[in-house]
Structure formats: structure tokens, C-alpha cells
Amino acid sequence: MPFDFNKIKSIFVVDDPSAATKDAPVANKQDSKSAPPSKPSRTAAPEMENLEPGQVSSKFVEVLFRAMENANLPGVDYLEYRQSLKSLEKMPMEEQVRYQSAFAMAQAMGATPPKLIESAQHYIDVLKGESAKFDQALRNQLQQQVGNREEAAKNLDAVIQQKAAQIKKLTEEIAQHQKEAETLRKETAEASQKMGATKNNFTASYDALVSQILSDVENMKKFLK
């Protein structure tokens, strides 16, 4: 059955009050069926390696929720089951009973444990697809914001070496080129740090959401027989 963005948002808890939303690349929606199973790979420049762990970002969480909304399966699937689980959260019952009670509601509409687990995996695959698209978009921006500056700095280094061998009248020109190269290196470091923080925020958002789904899958496997 249709499951819109607001409903999806209401059944997952991924809030992080300290999260900082920063500008970052968001790829166009594509078919996520063929997305690789891994988390976003480390593709950034070396300056991104020693950053603090990322934080859940409301911007990235919304991107992931939108992807799930667009990939919503017909009929009663994991999202409807998750909604039932959510509605039973405040009830004084054990976790096993809560999962079984939610399943009883879904079963009345034709759901089975294998179908629920299969649909949960479907949404994990959708999120993996978004992760892959984000990773590609990040690589593209790194190439534009970091790679080009690195290349420009290297070219200027070569010019500096050539002019250093020339006579004294070129000294002033050499100094100017050195200044430009230093500026480019500083811009490169700043751009790399910004992209690294953005990547970590996305990864934290992705991990928080997938972790909840995986936990549900494990509990469904354990409790729904």
C-alpha cells in the first residue's frame, strides 16, 4: 500500500540533536537494484582520513527516506510491519511479543515472515543504492574541488623549478608563483576537510538507518516462525 515520506519518517528514529547539516552532493535518483553491497568507500584525499566520526544529518536522512518512499512495494511489506511495531512500542510487552503481535496484524492482510524479511532486504538494497550514488557524487566533487587544485599546484611547482634556474630578474616572478601555489594547497586542504566531514555525516546517517532495519530482520528471523 502507499507509504509516503511522512509515514516513513515517523517509524524510524535517527535523530541526532548535535548533527550539523552541511552542503554536500546529492545524486539523482536512479535504479538502485544493482548497487554494491558495501558502505560508501573511502575516496577522498588524504586530508579526509583523520576526521572525527560523522553525525546523523537530517538532510541525508531525508534523502534516504525519499528513496525508500519512491521504492515502496505494493501491498503489506516491511514498512507497514515496522509501523505496527512502532505503534506497540509503549505497550508493556516483551520484545518477542511485540514482534509477534505486529505480525498478527500484518498476517491478517496476507503477510508472511519470508515476505517481510524479503521486503526489508529490498529497502536495505535501496539504501545501498543511495550510498553508491552519494559516493560517486562525492568523487565527482572531489575531482572538481581537490583534483584540479592539486594539478594546478603541481604545475606551478614545475614552473617554480624552471624559473629558479634563471637569472636574478626572475626572482620576483618566482616568489609570486610560490605564493599562488601555497594558496592552492591551503584551498585543497580546506576542500578535503569539508568533503570528509560531509562524507562522515552521510555514513553516520546511513549506518543509523540500516542498523535499525538489520536489527528488525534479525528479530523477525528469531521471533517469527
H/E series, N to C? HHHHHH
How much of the sequence lies in strands comes to under 5%
Number of helices: 6
Give the structural class: mainly alpha
Average of per-residue pLDDT values: 82
* Principal-axes shape call: rod-shaped
- Using the CA coordinates, give the radius of gyration: 24 Å
- Which oligomeric form is depicted? single chain
Number of domains: 1
Please tally the β strands and state the result.
Answer: 0
Largest sheet: none
Helical content, roughly?
A: 55-70%
Distance between the termini: 24 Å
Low-confidence stretches: 17-46
Which features would summarize this protein structure in a list?
single chain; 225 residues; 0% strand
Protein described:
The chain has 225 residues and is mainly α. It has one domain. Helices cover 66% and strands 0% of the residues. The chain is built from 6 helices and no strands. About 13% of the residues have low confidence.
Chain-wise SSE layout:
Blueprint: H1 5-11, H2 58-70, H3 78-87, H4 95-107, H5 113-164, H6 171-223
Helix pairs in contact: 1-3, 2-5, 2-6, 3-4, 5-6
